[in-house]
Amino acid sequence: MKTIVHKADSRGHADHGWLNAHHSFSFANYYNPNRMNFGVLRVLNDDIISGGMGFGMHPHDNMEIITIPLRGELEHKDSMDNIGRIKSGEIQVMSAGTGVFHSEYNPIPDQETNLLQIWVIPNKRNVQPRYDQISIQEYHRKNELYQVVSPDAEGQGTWIHQDAWFFLGDFDQGTTTSYNLNKKGNGVYLFVLEGSVNVEGEVLESRDAIGISDLDTFNLKADSDARFLLMEVPMTF
Question: Is CATH 2.40.37.10 what the domain over 138-234 is classified as, yes or no?
Answer without folding.
Answer: no
